Amino acid sequence: MTAQTFQAIAPRPAPVASEGFIPWIRGNLFGDWLTGLTTILIGAALLYLLPQLLSWGLFRASWLPNYDACKMQGVGACWGVIAEKHRLILFGRYPFEEQWRPLVATLLMLGLLAASCTRAFWRRWLVILWAIVLGVFFTLMLGNVLGLSKVETDRWGGLPLTILLASLSMAMAFPIALMMALGRRSKLPAIRTFCSIYVELIRGVPLISVLFMASFMFPLFMPQGFTIDVLIRVLVGITLFSAAYMAEVIRGGLQAIAKGQIEAAATLGLSYWQTQRKIVLPQALAMVVPSIMNNFISTFKDTSLVTIVSLYELTGALSMALNSDSKWRPFMIEGYLFIAMIYFIFCFSMSRYSIWVEKQVNRGTRH
Questions:
Q1: What is the largest CA-CA distance in the chain?
Q2: Do the Cβ atoms of 154 and 230 come closer than 8 Å?
Q3: Is residue 367 predicted with pLDDT exceeding 60?
Q4: Residues 202-232: pLDDT tens digits?
Q5: Would you put residue 57 in left (φ > 0), alpha (ψ -120 to 50) or beta?
Q6: What torsion do the CA atoms of 207, 212, 218, 220 make, to the nearest 10 degrees?
Q7: Which fold has domain 80-94+151-365?
Q8: Number of neighbours of residue 83 by Cβ within 10 angstroms
């Protein structure tokens, strides 16, 4: 028997950590030479520009509502324009002494939206809560009851108008979009044709055209002496426009469902609506959560277009506030940065909420 000599196996390299801050930087910022070069160039640009932006926006900025202080030599950003005009920007032309009403109404609406996004509140009584909050919202904003002075809708503006148009149009557009998506896949030619014409007609024109038609052309077809409030017309226009785009998003999710699942439901004796409610729609909507939220974010930002029909939401209220006072007009950049921050907070919150919802609905499919 020949003697066997022991031969050690060469040591293997230690496993590389795949989670954590350093691995994330290595994989996302320096994955290859082109990515690393781009990271270095962008980092160098930030190192050059960031100190100047901080100096302009923070260290040399004027924070007091003093026009003379803003015009002094060497002063950076003039945030005093926000301190001076914030009430006009946030509440538009609403009577100054009554602006506590839109403030309370906006806080109630934001609380309602937060409750609607919380899983613990996903109960049937949430619909009743919506009805109550909306009733209080319109009571506070419109007035003419409970000793409140009446304020016409054309004087509503700023953040309350933006929140109202965005939230109501989103809430009303979703069921319409759902019906249109199902209708476009219907086997009945009349329903399928009607839904297709609606979606393609609305998607074929810009939102500005829809708002213009709703505000100026639609009243021409009304009977003599019969008028519909411009706020309602604009709200209907935004709702129908958003529903057309959302219908195509939902239809994409419906087409992704395997035909075998529908056939299996039919063999179990489920009706069409039972199949859609229990099998098709839960899966289809779960797959298109990011696209639906993208449509919501787009609708929220599109509310800025209502300025063309003399409804002054955030963007329109800012223009009105600065154009009405010529001495503050040179500081429009600071004003736009202020409302851009508001839009970013809302849009970023919706984006993060979309990620959370997507994780919740896809929990059962993760491996």
A1: 116
A2: yes
A3: no
A4: 988 888 888 888 777 777 777 777 778 888 8
A5: alpha
A6: -160
A7: MetI-like fold (1.10.3720)
A8: 13
Residue 205: how many CA atoms within 13 Å on its side-chain side?
A: 16
Domain boundaries, the chain: 80-94+151-365
* 313 phi, psi to nearest 5 deg: -80, -155
Minimum mean pLDDT range among 12-16, 76-80, 105-109, 113-117: 12-16
**The predicted structure's pLDDT at residue 326:** 81
CA distance to 27, 28, 30, 42, 186, per residue, from 34 (Å): 13, 12, 8, 12, 50
Rounded to 5 degrees, φ, ψ at 62 are: -105, 125
Q: In Å, what is the CA distance from 85 to each residue of 6, 79, 164?
A: 85, 10, 22
The amino acid occupying position 154 is D
Cα–Cα distance for residue pair 131/110, rounded to 1 Å: 14
Q: How far apart are CA 340 and CA 56, in angstroms?
A: 18
Beta bridge partners of 313: 158
Residue type, 111: G
Orientation of helix 158-184 relative to helix 100-116, angle to 10°: 30
Which stretches within the chain are classed as H helix?
A: 21-28, 33-54, 67-70, 80-91, 100-116, 125-142, 158-184, 189-203, 207-212, 230-255, 259-267, 272-275, 281-287, 289-302, 314-323, 332-361
What is residue 327's DSSP assignment? Answer: G
CA-based angle 359:362:364, to the nearest 5?
120
